[in-house]
Amino acid sequence: MDVFRINGGRPLRGEVTVSGAKNACLPIFAATLLTGETCVIENVPDLSDLRFMAEIIENLGAEVERPDKNTWRITAKNITHRAPYDLVRRMRASVCLLGPLVARLKKAEVSLPGGCVIGPRPIDLHLKGLAKLNCEVDVRAGYVHIDAKRARGGHVFLGGRHGSTVTGTANILMAAVLTPGVTRIESAACEPEVVDLCKMLLSMGAKIEGVGSHCLTIEGVDKLNGTTYRVIDDRIEAGTYLIAAAMLDADITVNGAHPEDLSALLDKLEEAGADFSIELGGRIRMRGTPGTLNPVDVITLPHPGFPTDLQAQMCTLMSVTPGLSIITERVYPNRFMHVPELQRMGADIAIEGASAIVKGRRNPLSGAPVMASDLRASAALILAAMAAHGETWVQRIYHLDRGYENFDEKLRGLGADVERLNQDQMPKDLSGES
């Protein structure tokens, strides 16, 4: 198991290029099951989650090849309808296999994905949507069983307690593209990753209207074709670099930072007084001036609201921004497991219900051994370590490897003092070992 050793206070200079979006790749991988023809997916980041997804797809019977590190070739000519627990349990997003299997095979048997550290993430809206398509849905013995022999288009409302469901929208969308009749999805998620899935399906011959809106209309077709498709750049990775630069002595340019996908973050950074400029070709330049920003209040919401996947990083930024900030989590109200670790480093944060009350001070952080609890918490702790005085050891970075490609290498390329080491190289008095 690897750890990061980070010495803080280093200035950042230069350019960094973001990788393809993991959260777009996962449903796009699943969508390759909708056709027996070959699909080539480009700009795929080299991440553990995507390797797991490829393994599951291969287990279903697809031929999976990898011509190079960031390209996958998938041919799902002969596939089975059953995705077993021992594979699905490794990655919650594999539940998005339900839609393609229902559409292509008219039946599916997929293990329930289990819990998640950031809070409850039920799939009830997925199952409700499939039932609205006249599928027979049965949950027993830890598996979802779907009989779609009589499936037909229908009206589906996907609004939930915390807004639209991204993976649920992807599932119903993929189920509908090969289902006879017209399906109308209301309160559909409109995240850029959902838009990207729509564009990929359109390139395969699907008929979809309303792309990018909360209302999608799908006319089922008899078959879909293979395609070659390039996945969008990762807006969350881009946002993470922008936040890092805003809190440090920095002058960096982020390539693959598309302002139309980052409007809520850029609005808050502008409100805070950050010095950035939008350049042509998906490039944003950020110049950091530590300790000079203004505190801001943030509420996470489904797109186009502030992304929940940038909430932890924003907590870190506000910890080093003098003044009082309130960060409210409306998507996953329990998603504050990074806070105790930031407190270990000196951050003044209190949790009140679904809000973090952040009393920011200039340079309050000091290096300490910390443990990452999830993917975005990992990034937040690394950003905190880069701003802290002294040395920080970040443990459990396997979470980070699920969603950030070569993060340590990219940060080093900007001048950060970040080193990936084996757990055994960490001093025992810091790791908690006796």
Automatic annotation (TrEMBL):
Keyword set, alphabetical order: Cell cycle, Cell division, Cell shape, Cell wall biogenesis/degradation, Cytoplasm, Peptidoglycan synthesis, Pyruvate, Transferase
UniProt protein name: UDP-N-acetylglucosamine 1-carboxyvinyltransferase
SUPFAM superfamilies noted in UniProt: EPT/RTPC-like (SSF55205)
Cited InterPro entries: Enolpyruvate_Tfrase_dom (IPR001986), Enolpyruvate_Tfrase_sf (IPR036968), MurA_subfamily (IPR050068), RNA3'P_cycl/enolpyr_Trfase_a/b (IPR013792), UDP_GlcNAc_COvinyl_MurA (IPR005750)
Compartment(s) of residence: Cytoplasm
Signal peptide: none
GO MF term (any one): UDP-N-acetylglucosamine 1-carboxyvinyltransferase activity
E.C. designation(s): 2.5.1.7
Span of domain Enolpyruvate transferase: 7-411
Binding site for phosphoenolpyruvate: K22, N23
CDD domains hit by this protein: UdpNAET
Function: Cell wall formation. Adds enolpyruvyl to UDP-N-acetylglucosamine.
GO BP: any one term: cell division
Positions where 2-(S-cysteinyl)pyruvic acid O-phosphothioketal occurs in the chain: C116
Residue positions binding UDP-N-acetyl-alpha-D-glucosamine: R92, R121, P122, I123, D124, L125, D309, V331
Source organism (scientific name): Cerasicoccus arenae
Pathway: Cell wall biogenesis; peptidoglycan biosynthesis
